[in-house]
């Protein structure tokens, strides 16, 4: 899954919300859309950050 797919799901729930007659159902669909937009933001932020490789641990070299 990626940010674009999450945004498409959010759009789907917004369209669905407009078809709901009960305000409670409409609100639930808008909440679902907001959830998917939040996931899209997370995916987008992850794509912007380069993968950070952990630095190898260095042990002090003892001089004998």
Task: Report what the structure shows.
- By secondary structure, this protein is mostly helical.
- The chain has one domain (3-48).
- Helix content is 67%, strand content 0%.
- It has 2 helices and no strands.
- The protein has helices spanning 3-19, 23-48.
- Helix 1 (3-19) runs antiparallel to helix 2 (23-48).
- The longest helix has 26 residues, at 23-48.
- 8% of the residues are buried.
- The mean pLDDT is 86.
Which short descriptors sum up this protein?
64 residues; mainly alpha
Overview in brief:
The chain is mainly α. The chain has 2 helices and no strands.
Sequence-ordered SSE layout with sheet pairings:
Elements: H1 3-19, H2 23-48
Helix pairs in contact: 1-2
Mean pLDDT: 86
Which term fits the overall shape?
Answer: rod-shaped
Low-confidence stretches: none
> Helicity level, as a percent range?
55-70%
Q: Please tally the helical runs, counting DSSP H or I stretches of 4 or more residues.
A: 2
Largest sheet: none
Give the total of beta strands.
Answer: 0
Gap from first CA to last CA: 55 Å
Rg over C-alpha atoms, rounded to the nearest angstrom: 22 Å
Helices and strands: which structural class? mainly alpha
Helix-strand pattern: HH
């Amino acid at each position: 899954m990626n940010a674009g797919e999450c945004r498409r799901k959010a759009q789907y729930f917004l369209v669905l919300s407009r078809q709901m007659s009960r305000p409670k159902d409409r609100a639930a669909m808008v909440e679902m859309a907001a959830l998917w937009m939040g996931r899209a933001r997370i995916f987008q932020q992850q794509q912007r950050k380069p993968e950070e490789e952990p630095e190898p641990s260095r042990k002090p070299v003892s001089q004998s």
